[in-house]
User: Fold this.
Amino acid sequence: MLDEFPCALTCGLPSALEAMGEKWSFLILRGALAGTRHFEDFQSTLGIARNILANRLARLVEKGIMVREPMSCDRRKVEYRLTEKGNELAPVMIALRQWGEKWECGVPSVPTLADRRDGQPIQQIRILSHDGRALGLCDLVWIYPDEIAPVGGVEEIAA
Amino acid sequence: MLDEFPCALTCGLPSALEAMGEKWSFLILRGALAGTRHFEDFQSTLGIARNILANRLARLVEKGIMVREPMSCDRRKVEYRLTEKGNELAPVMIALRQWGEKWECGVPSVPTLADRRDGQPIQQIRILSHDGRALGLCDLVWIYPDEIAPVGGVEEIAA
Assistant:
């Protein structure tokens, strides 16, 4: 477990949740990451009420996570696509999916994600040290900006 | 962007969201990861209504993400602690916090998480290949269990 701290001075999590913070937004993003582009397709694959879907898509667009654009082939139709900001939610989504596989479903998700280059499944999403060691909660401490150790850190000072 | 696929056969994400799926649960988990244990402390740090907090804590206990136990020092008091299942949500929470830092706050979270061993901040949470290369969405494909390449994969076959 981490050491206690009284409260975060600034923390990206509440504002991230403000942008995302409920089930349907995550499921819309899952669809978008899997290539869904059109209102009707989101509606039919998710089984979500049309007014809720419209509301959540509008919010994701407003937050800059998706863009709403006329299709180049038929400008009467619109499509929803992820922005760079939206794409960068992929690690969150994949980590949550992997957790659900292990702790809720009990079976690996199908299909699964693999590296295009060699067809091997991706790693579990983990917390890594700056030099790539996997860290558990016991290995973590909270630090303030003025406490960041010089590279080499404790060992260098001790040497 | 990933190749399209019609719909997931099984996917850990919906069930993960069923267990987690709204803002207050994530914020309670953030508190728990930072060492908060008591109802009154969750209530005062989050500013959440008591009935909503009681409901969300009961749900997290029911889902096996937290446990509710009498304190060893005073058995009239109870504390809420993360289970192993709850602790394993840390990569999700940290990835979402990092995303919020970059895209919503625009400043690094304070305090930040570091490796206890050398005091260096942890890496960004990323998608990694089986051999540790960072992968973007363009590098990913969906595969089914019978499509998993033997280790060595494409290159070995091509050789």
About this structure: Chain B touches chain A through 96 residues (CB under 8 Å). Chain B has two domains: 11-88, 90-159. The first strand of chain B starts at residue 66 and ends at 70. The helical segments of chain B are 12-20, 23-33, 39-46, 50-62, 84-87, 90-105, 153-158.
